[in-house]
Amino acid sequence: MSQTSASATYWQSFPSLPLLSKLLSDVFAAQGGAELLYGSKTPDRIQVSVMQIRFTQDSVAGKFAHGKFKDYLVADMAQTLRDGKMKPSDFPLAVVKFDKWYWTLNNRSLYVLRLASDAQHPLMASVATYDLCAVTSKFIQLRCDSLISQNGGVDEQVPQDDELDLAEQSEDGEELPEYNQEDEDLLEEGIIQFHTVPT
User: Fold this and answer.
1) What is the dihedral sign for C-alpha 24, 29, 33, 34?
2) pTM for this structure?
3) Of 43, 59, 145, 149, which cross-links 180 as Cys (Cβ 3.0–4.6 Å)?
4) Is the dihedral of CA 2, 5, 65, 36 positive or negative?
5) Segment 27-56, tens digit of pLDDT
6) Cα(59)–Cα(155) distance, rounded to whole angstroms?
7) What single-letter DSSP state applies at residue 166?
């Protein structure tokens, strides 16, 4: 099954995901998320090896969609970094620490850093680390359950693992995400992709 048809099958099987995405977007806005990620409330940055940072998506678009690199090709930015015309700190990351791993909120920037890295001497990323909130997680769980029940529940048909077309991950590392414009378009519309299974 192609990645496009697997993705479509997945979304049709979980009609409540747009509700969850909207709820998460509302929580982010109400709690001043933009100021935390991009404004004066950004935490101090530390240096972390790019090999210690995981992706939160299983695919990335070929171009940056916003920010100072808007419309630049990801591959071109990686080459510019390899050529020494830019520094790793030009691609700062926002990360969360969960289950002994750092998880990026900037998948394209991490992709650039990984492409430009040498396996023997991985680049060091400039990261701002954020805490996950257990209370927020519980609120989202309870509110999402309520929204789903108000909207008629969830379709019982769950796709098989082979329908999801997930990238295989090794025990000591992870695959780079694939370029996938369809997934990127869904993310731009505010639909968050939840089928990545962390190892």
Assistant:
1) positive
2) 0.65
3) 59
4) negative
5) 888 888 888 777 777 788 999 999 999 999
6) 25
7) P
